Amino acid sequence: MSRISFRIENTRSNSGKHRRIAKAFIVNENGEVLPIKISSSWSCKGVYSRGESRCVHIDVEDNLFVVLIELTINWRKHVKGYINVKNSDGLDLLKVKYIRGRLRYVSGDREAVHLIKNILKYVEAELK
């Protein structure tokens, strides 16, 4: 078991034109989403001033993966951001860029994309 630090946030800019979302998901080898085990959390500053932001330590068991999603939405509803997949040791397995519903490979193991597919359906439904 290892511990990964991450910021979970849902904030907006003062003008209301930009929104920042950061979430974490734990996934098994088949891509099924499992509940997150947060060992500790504290308040921290987000990217934008309005909204809430928490820094957390997530406990990850062996043979599980953490998917970290950081997205920015502008006033035209264009979504951009990065999705990182980390293994149970906290090492980066895959990093992709997310732009308007499409994934672009940045670095890591390309075969780990199947870990992201189920989560994207959930996140895209939340953004609408």
The profile of the biggest β sheet is:
9 strands, antiparallel
The oligomeric state of the chains shown is single chain
Specify the number of helices: 1
Helix content: 10-25%
Q: Whole-number average pLDDT?
A: 90
Secondary-structure element string? EEEEEEEEEH
Q: Which regions are unreliable across 5 or more consecutive residues at pLDDT < 50?
A: none
Kindly estimate the percentage of residues that lie in beta strands according to DSSP. over 45%
Evaluate the radius of gyration. Answer: 14 Å
Number of β-strand runs: 9
Categorize the overall geometry: globular
Question: Class by helix and strand content?
Answer: mainly beta
The CA-CA distance between the termini, in Å, is: 35 Å
Explained architecture:
It is globular and about 45 Å long. The longest helix has 14 residues, at 114-127. The mean pLDDT is 90. It is mainly beta and 128 residues long. The protein has one helix spanning 114-127; strands at residues 2-12, 19-27, 33-34, 37-43, 50-60, 65-73, 79-86, 92-99, 102-108. Strands 1, 2, 3, 4, 5, 6, 7, 8 and 9 form a nine-stranded antiparallel beta sheet that branches. It contains one helix and nine strands, in the order βββββββββα.
Which structural traits does this protein have?
single chain; 128 residues; mainly beta; 9-stranded antiparallel β-sheet; 9 strands
Summarize the structure.
By secondary structure, the protein is mainly beta. It contains 1 helix and 9 strands, in the order βββββββββα. Strands 1, 2, 3, 4, 5, 6, 7, 8 and 9 form a 9-stranded antiparallel beta sheet that branches.
